[in-house]
Design brief:
alpha/beta
Length: about 120
Protein backbone atom coordinates (compact mmCIF):
# COMPACT_ATOMS: atom_id res chain seq x y z
CA UNK A 1 0.00 0.00 0.00
CA UNK A 2 1.10 3.53 -0.67
CA UNK A 3 2.24 5.67 2.24
CA UNK A 4 0.55 9.07 2.02
CA UNK A 5 2.22 12.32 3.01
CA UNK A 6 -0.98 14.28 3.65
CA UNK A 7 -4.40 13.56 5.08
CA UNK A 8 -6.04 15.05 1.98
CA UNK A 9 -4.08 12.74 -0.32
CA UNK A 10 -5.12 9.69 1.70
CA UNK A 11 -8.78 10.75 1.82
CA UNK A 12 -8.86 11.29 -1.95
CA UNK A 13 -7.37 7.84 -2.54
CA UNK A 14 -9.86 6.20 -0.20
CA UNK A 15 -12.75 8.08 -1.83
CA UNK A 16 -11.63 6.75 -5.22
CA UNK A 17 -11.80 3.24 -3.73
CA UNK A 18 -15.38 3.65 -2.54
CA UNK A 19 -14.92 5.05 0.99
CA UNK A 20 -17.33 7.91 0.34
CA UNK A 21 -19.09 8.35 3.69
CA UNK A 22 -17.81 10.39 6.63
CA UNK A 23 -18.33 9.15 10.17
CA UNK A 24 -18.12 11.01 13.43
CA UNK A 25 -18.14 9.61 16.96
CA UNK A 26 -20.99 9.81 19.41
CA UNK A 27 -20.88 8.31 22.91
CA UNK A 28 -21.07 4.62 21.98
CA UNK A 29 -21.46 4.61 18.18
CA UNK A 30 -20.26 6.21 14.95
CA UNK A 31 -22.72 8.31 12.99
CA UNK A 32 -22.57 8.86 9.25
CA UNK A 33 -22.87 12.61 8.88
CA UNK A 34 -25.20 12.93 5.85
CA UNK A 35 -27.57 9.99 6.48
CA UNK A 36 -27.36 9.89 10.30
CA UNK A 37 -26.78 6.12 10.07
CA UNK A 38 -25.60 4.88 13.48
CA UNK A 39 -22.99 2.11 13.77
CA UNK A 40 -22.13 0.35 17.02
CA UNK A 41 -18.72 -1.32 17.28
CA UNK A 42 -20.08 -4.68 16.14
CA UNK A 43 -21.60 -3.05 13.02
CA UNK A 44 -18.34 -2.17 11.25
CA UNK A 45 -14.77 -3.28 10.61
CA UNK A 46 -11.63 -1.20 10.28
CA UNK A 47 -10.04 -2.02 6.92
CA UNK A 48 -6.94 0.19 7.14
CA UNK A 49 -5.57 3.23 8.87
CA UNK A 50 -3.13 6.03 8.17
CA UNK A 51 -1.46 8.09 10.87
CA UNK A 52 -0.14 11.59 10.27
CA UNK A 53 2.14 13.59 12.54
CA UNK A 54 2.42 17.36 12.65
CA UNK A 55 5.82 18.65 11.65
CA UNK A 56 6.17 21.04 14.57
CA UNK A 57 3.23 20.44 16.90
CA UNK A 58 2.45 16.99 18.32
CA UNK A 59 -1.12 18.25 18.73
CA UNK A 60 -1.46 18.09 14.94
CA UNK A 61 -1.41 14.28 14.95
CA UNK A 62 -4.34 12.65 13.12
CA UNK A 63 -5.39 9.11 12.35
CA UNK A 64 -7.57 8.28 9.35
CA UNK A 65 -9.53 5.03 9.49
CA UNK A 66 -11.16 3.36 6.47
CA UNK A 67 -14.18 1.39 7.65
CA UNK A 68 -16.77 -0.91 6.13
CA UNK A 69 -20.16 -1.30 7.80
CA UNK A 70 -22.07 -4.57 7.92
CA UNK A 71 -24.70 -2.93 5.66
CA UNK A 72 -22.01 -2.38 2.97
CA UNK A 73 -21.51 1.34 3.62
CA UNK A 74 -17.83 2.33 3.29
CA UNK A 75 -16.36 5.50 4.70
CA UNK A 76 -13.75 7.25 6.78
CA UNK A 77 -13.35 8.36 10.36
CA UNK A 78 -10.71 11.01 11.14
CA UNK A 79 -9.53 11.08 14.74
CA UNK A 80 -7.33 13.93 15.99
CA UNK A 81 -4.95 12.38 18.53
CA UNK A 82 -6.66 12.15 21.92
CA UNK A 83 -9.61 14.36 20.96
CA UNK A 84 -12.35 11.82 21.56
CA UNK A 85 -10.86 10.05 24.55
CA UNK A 86 -13.33 11.59 27.02
CA UNK A 87 -16.32 11.78 24.66
CA UNK A 88 -16.51 8.20 23.38
CA UNK A 89 -17.10 4.95 25.24
CA UNK A 90 -14.04 2.75 25.86
CA UNK A 91 -15.81 -0.08 23.99
CA UNK A 92 -16.08 2.00 20.81
CA UNK A 93 -12.51 3.28 21.03
CA UNK A 94 -11.24 -0.30 21.52
CA UNK A 95 -12.50 -1.02 18.00
CA UNK A 96 -9.83 1.37 16.68
CA UNK A 97 -6.87 -0.31 18.44
CA UNK A 98 -5.92 -2.19 15.28
CA UNK A 99 -2.17 -2.69 15.38
CA UNK A 100 -2.52 -6.30 16.56
CA UNK A 101 -5.25 -7.35 14.10
CA UNK A 102 -3.95 -9.31 11.13
CA UNK A 103 -6.84 -8.38 8.80
CA UNK A 104 -6.29 -4.61 9.15
CA UNK A 105 -3.90 -3.01 6.69
CA UNK A 106 -1.43 -1.12 8.90
CA UNK A 107 0.97 -0.08 6.14
CA UNK A 108 -0.16 3.51 6.65
CA UNK A 109 1.04 3.60 10.24
CA UNK A 110 3.87 5.93 11.15
CA UNK A 111 7.04 3.90 11.41
CA UNK A 112 9.59 4.75 14.08
CA UNK A 113 12.85 6.18 12.80
CA UNK A 114 15.78 3.82 13.04
CA UNK A 115 18.41 5.89 14.91
CA UNK A 116 21.28 3.98 13.34
CA UNK A 117 20.29 4.63 9.73
CA UNK A 118 19.00 8.17 10.45
CA UNK A 119 22.39 9.42 11.51
Amino acid sequence: MKHFTTLTEAMEDLRSRGYTHEFGPKKDFLEEKSTETKLKGEDFNVDEFHRFEGTSDPGDEMTLYAITASNGMKGVFVSPQGTYSNEVSPELMAKFHVEDRAHVNTDGAVKPIDPISAG
